[in-house]
Design goal:
The chain is of the alpha+beta class. It has 9 helices and 10 strands.
């Protein structure tokens, strides 16, 4: 990220203070992890915070919640998912976020213990306006996000961060979201007999009676 963009990120992150204590720090981290300024990531960030508020919970620190984000790949504003992940704390590494690949800018946040959930979706008029913005126009022309001038990206972020949840989103009533029982976390490991690398025991396979990792096993799953 260029120096002028880094400065802009630190300044724009202050807008997170309107969401409550510490959200400015989380927002800055979200920009840094995402790597560039755009409208999709802040919109996902706002949607994630709105989901937490609707469920009456705080940002995930352990393994208590799961997010289904409805974006996919190969379409504009997929950056939405990064904002959702950072805001909710339901991260890829913790296995707490899944993409449904519906090509929609929406998410469902689920309490794993109670199965209580809420769905947040971006209002169509908000999304249409974002996709008709000068930023997206430049992206259509093949300009990389980091090459879009700050006088184009900054007003986009400021506009999204300055609007209310009611202006941006449709928030569902709370509902029950069934979840399949999750297998217990595996803390045991074995050495792959073929490549010698350490592998989680529950991901190892047997080949000629010896434990091997999936790539060495010849299996696909």
């Amino acid at each position: 990220m260029k120096q002028d963009q880094q400065l802009a990120v630190r300044q724009l992150a202050q807008l997170g203070r309107a969401l409550g204590v510490s959200w400015d720090r989380v927002l800055e981290a979200s920009f840094v992890v995402h790597g560039h300024l755009c409208g999709g990531m802040p919109l996902g960030f706002r949607a994630g915070v709105a989901a937490l508020k609707a469920l009456g919970i705080t940002r995930e620190e352990n393994m208590a919640h799961l997010v289904f984000v409805e974006t996919g790949t190969g379409h504009a504003a997929g950056c939405f998912a990064d904002g959702v992940q950072t805001a909710t704390g339901c991260t890829f590494g913790k296995g707490l976020i899944e993409r449904t690949h519906y090509g929609k800018w929406a998410l469902s946040l689920v309490d794993k213990a109670t199965h209580q959930a809420v769905r947040i979706s971006v209002k169509p008029e908000v999304m249409k306006a974002a996709l008709q913005s000068p930023f997206v126009g430049m992206r259509r022309e093949g300009i990389a996000p980091t090459e879009v001038p700050l006088d184009t990206t900054r007003p986009l972020v400021e506009g999204l961060m300055g609007r209310t949840d009611d202006e941006l989103f449709t928030v569902s009533e709370l509902f029950t979201h069934p979840l399949a029982a999750a297998p217990p976390t595996c803390f045991d490991t074995v050495l792959c007999a073929a490549c010698g690398e350490l592998v989680a025991e529950n991901k190892a396979r047997l080949k000629d009676g010896m434990p091997v990792c999936l790539p060495c096993s010849g299996y696909t799953a």
